[in-house]
Amino acid sequence: MISVIVPVYNVEKYLEECLDSIQNQTYGDIEVILVNDGSTDKSKDICERYCKEDTRFKLINQANQGQSVARNNGVAASAGEFIAFVDSDDIIRMNYLEELMRHMSEDVDIVESKFTVQKKEFFNENYKEINVVFEGDSEEAVKVVPKHVLSVNPVTKLYRKSIVEAVPYLEGLIFEDIYSGVGMLKYVRKIIKLDYVGYYYRQHGNSTMHRKFTEKNLDVFTVSDKLVEMYSDREELLPYIGSYLVHVTTMHYQDYIRKGNPYAKVYNQKLTEYVTLTKKNQELAKKSRMIRLYNICPKYYNSIIFPVYHFVWKLKNGIKEVTVDE
Predict the structure, then answer these.
(1) Number of domains making up the chain
(2) 260: alpha, beta or left, given left = phi > 0 and alpha = psi -120 to 50?
(3) Quick one: 13 and 136 in the same domain?
(4) C-alpha triplet 49, 55, 61: angle, nearest 5°
(5) What is the DSSP string of 175-224?
(6) CB 50 within 8 A of CB 34
(7) 226 and 128 in one domain?
(8) pTM of the model
(9) pLDDT tens per residue across span 259-300
(10) How confident is the prediction for the chain on average, in pLDDT?
(11) Domain CATH code at residue 175
(12) pLDDT beyond 50 at 323
């Protein structure tokens, strides 16, 4: 059985569309655990209605504590051998669970699909043959993390429950997906990534990536350091972790860290640590464009060098701001 865990918080506008997509799955051996995280709108009422109409749906109510606590409580209450997380404002394709389960075998611990942020693309995509684009063990998976072959997002995946239990979601922190998404790779026997867009991910302006910079954003360093600590007994893999963290800190913060920013000092200190970690594998460091840019002038990497490079890169590739379909 698959336990589908849905953290719910003030999403009455989108919740029914999400739950309908789960209820109508072609794979029927599921339980759906709705974790109401202290919603103040009509989300709880909607959850109760689905539980009344479909015995596969179960509701857990908790005080507002965040998605990580909701996910952990959902896992603790689950009865399935496999786990799938779905955010309560997203949509999954009708054969999503069936397709992921079809690729789950005895030695596979995670099967991942692709996702899209464009709703029209999600509904208009024509059927095509589904291929495996990545298949590898723990070491192979960690080594492709800097290349972003695999997603760190908790959603878009089918997990063997034991893998999720091995790396509980960090509570009280943002960017917890970095820790769990990369951390679980340490324990997998095999992970598979499919060339299949099975998940529509709805972006919002109030997401972590779009929030105004505050001291809370420094959680990324707490999370990153915990990840480095987790892999401390796998020294050969630490440079790959470092390379990924250089990317994460650069992409999340280069728009925020400017002269006079009170957090610039700690940012630059942490960035230097992750660059140093990457350089323990010189071949990897040479292949990293960000490391090469950093080496030009570390002092001005985040304030001038990378922003200029990124602007030119987007200009050359015709990339504009993402248009989000509500």
Answers:
(1) 2
(2) left
(3) yes
(4) 55
(5) SHHHHHHHHGGGT-S-EEEEEEEEEE----TTSGGGSPP-GGGGHHHHHH
(6) yes
(7) no
(8) 0.91
(9) 567 777 888 899 999 999 999 999 999 999 999 999 999 988
(10) 90
(11) 3.90.550.10
(12) no
d(CA 305, CA 300): 6
Do 109 and 66 share a structural domain?
yes
- Using DSSP, state whether 82 is helix, strand or coil: strand
Q: What is the DSSP string of 114-169?
A: EEES-HHHHHHPPP----EEEEE-HHHHHHTGGGT-S---SSSEEEEHHHHHHSPP
pLDDT in tens, 212-234: 667 787 888 999 999 999 999 99
Measured distance CA(275)–CA(182) in Å, rounded: 18
User: The domain containing residue 73 runs over which residues?
Assistant: 2-200
Q: What pLDDT was estimated at residue 315?
A: 86
Residue 57: which H helix or E strand, with range?
A: strand 57-62
The per-residue pLDDT for 208 is 44
Q: What is the Cα–Cα distance from 179 to 177, expressed in whole angstroms?
A: 5
Q: Is residue 129 part of a domain?
A: yes
The two tokens of residue 27 are 């794979």
User: What one-letter code names the amino acid at 258?
Assistant: R
Is residue 92 a contact partner of residue 17, using CB atoms and an 8 Å limit?
A: no
Closest CA to 55 of 73, 34, 77, 31: 31
3-state secondary structure 291-322: HHHHHHCHHHHHHHHHHHHHHHHHHHCCCCCC
Question: What are the CA-CA distances from residue 191 to residues 137, 188, 243 (Å)?
Answer: 6, 7, 21
Where residue 258 falls among pLDDT bands split at 50, 70, 90?
low
Task: Please check whether residues 120 and 73 belong to one and the same domain.
Answer: yes
Spatial contact of 220 and 249, defined as CB atoms under 8 Å apart: yes
Quick check: 134 and 192 in contact, CB under 8 A? yes
| Residue 89 bridge partners (DSSP) | none
